[in-house]
Amino acid sequence: MTSASAEGFNGNYPGKGIGTPVGIAVLGKGTVGTEVLRLLGEFSDNLEQRISSPIEVRGVAVSDVEKHKDAPEVQGLYLTGDARELVTRDDVDIVVELIGGIDYPRELVLEALGAGKSVVTANKALVAAHGSELADAANAAGVDLYYEAAVAAAIPVVGMLRRSLAGDQVQRISGIVNGTTNFILDAMASTGASYEEALAEATRLGYAEADPTADVEGHDAASKAAILASMGFHTRVTFDDVYCEGITHVTSDDIEAAKQSDQTIKLLAICERLIDAEGNTTGINARVHPTLVPNEHPLASVDKSYNAIFVEAEAAGRLMFYGNGAGGAPTASAVLGDLVGAARNKVHGGRAPAENPYADYPVVPFGEVTTRYHINMTVNDRVGVLANLTKRFAAAGISLSAVRQEVSGDEAHLIVVTHAAREQDLHAIVDQLTGHDDVLSVNSVIRLDA
Ligand code: NDP
Ligand code: HSE
Fold first, then answer.
1. Are 56 and 22 in contact (CB under 8 A)?
2. Which domains, ranges and CATH numbers included, belong to the chain?
3. Is residue 152 in contact with ligand 1, taking CB distance under 6 Å?
4. How far does the centroid of ligand 2 lie from the alpha carbon of residue 36, in Å?
5. Start and end of every ACT domain (predicted)?
6. What are the catalytic residues?
7. Alpha-carbon distances of 210 from 29, 32, 447, rounded to whole Å
8. 87, 155, 183, 331: which to mutate for ligand 1, most atoms within 8 A of CB?
9. pLDDT tens figures, 120-169
10. What is the pLDDT of residues 254-270, one digit of tens each?
C-alpha cells in the first residue's frame, strides 16, 4: 500500500526524498519579499527540520537590480531583473510570486506551473481574476498552488476554509479584510486625521497596494471576497462577480454621525449563501461596501490595520478570526507557511488539497439581495414633509425601523433606517428621494449589515 503524505496521497506525486534540497525562486523584493527573504535566513534551521530538507534560494527577481544589490537579504544570492529566466530553471522546485499586478505575474505563474514548479503567491488580484485558470494549470501539472497570504495576510483563513471546514457547510463569511481602509477609517474616527493623512500613513507603513486606489475603492477587498466565496461555497467566484463600493465617499460627517448613534463605519466584505423558504440554496452573493456596525459588535473594535473575519457554518456555528491583515512580516508568515507545505510535498510526495468548485452555485446579482439602509438627508421643515416621505417607502414596500429628525431653521436633518429589503428597491427609493422637491440633499446612504 502506498503511504499517505502529510497533505495528500503521494502515489501519483512522488517526492524528491528526505534531505534533498528544495530550490526556490523569489519574485519581488518589496514590502513582502524582503521580509520573506529575511525570515528564510533567520528561520532556516527550523524550516529544514519541519520540511526534512533545506530550502535553498536559487534567485531573487526584482525590476531594478541596482536598487537592491547591496541589501542584506540578498547578499550571496543570485539577483536578476529577468523573472522569466528564473521560473523555469531546472533547479527551482517552488516559485514564490510577490510582484503584484495581474498580467505579468499570470504569465510567470502559468510558466512556472507548466514547468512543474509549485507556486506560492500573495497576489489576491491575480487569484481573484484568474484563479480557475491557475488551479487548472496546477492540476494538469500535478503541483501545488498556495495563496494563504492573499487574504488577510497572517490570518489563516484560506487554510481554514480549505482544510478545517472542508466537512462543513459554510453559510456566511463576513468581515474586515483590508488593512489600509480599516486604518484610514479608524484614524479618521479616533484621531480626527484627514482621509489624505491617514492614507499617506498607511502607505508609509507598507499596508497599501502599489496603487492604493485598489484599497480605497474596495477592489482589494473584493478580490479577497471572491477568493473567500470560492473557497467557502465551492463555486468559482471572480472579482467581476463581486459588488464593490469603496470608502472614498465616506466623509468625516458620516463618521461623526455614526459615532453619535453608537455605531462605527467599517468596510465589510460579505459572502453569503442565499437560502429559500424550503432551506434550499438558491445561489450565493459576494459584496464589499462601507457598513454601519453597532459599537457592541466585535467588528466595531477592530482598529488600525487589523482584520477580522466571521465565518458561520452549519455544524461549527460562528467562528471569528482576528489578526494582522497587512504588512511585511505578517504577510511573510503566511507565505512561509505555504512554502513549508509546498516544500514538504516536494520532499515527501503528495499534493495539497486544491480548490473544488463542484457546487457551482449561481452568483446572484447584488440588486436581488436583501440589505438595510441608513439614509441621512436634509429636508424642508414643513408640515406634511415627513409623512410624504415615509409614504414613499411604504409604497415601495419598504418598512422603516427608525426615523429621527433634528430641526435647524427652515431645514431638518432626517435619518431614516430601513428594515431589510431588496437592494434594488432601496436603491430606487434613494433615487426618488434625490429628485424630491422637499429633499434638499441626500447626505449619505450607508448600509447596515442585514
Ligand atoms: P511592493 O510594491 O512593495 O514590491 C513589489 C516587488 O516586485 C518589488 O521588489 C519590485 O521590484 C518587484 N517587481 C515589480 N515588477 C517586477 C518585474 N517586472 N520583475 C521582477 N520584479 C518586479 O509590493 P508588496 O511587497 O507590498 O506586495 C507584493 C504582493 O503581495 C502583491 O501581490 C500584494 O497584493 C501582496 N500582498 C501585500 C501585502 C502587504 O501588506 N504589502 C499583504 C498581503 C498581500 P523593485 O523593488 O525593483 O521595483
Ligand atoms: N493592501 C492590503 C491591505 C494588503 O491593506 O489589506 C493586505 O492584503
1. yes
2. 5-153+328-348 (3.40.50.720), 162-323 (3.30.360.10), 367-448 (3.30.70.260)
3. no
4. 16
5. 374-447
6. 224
7. 13, 12, 29
8. 331
9. 999 999 999 999 999 999 999 999 999 999 999 999 999 999 999 999 99
10. 999 899 889 999 999 99
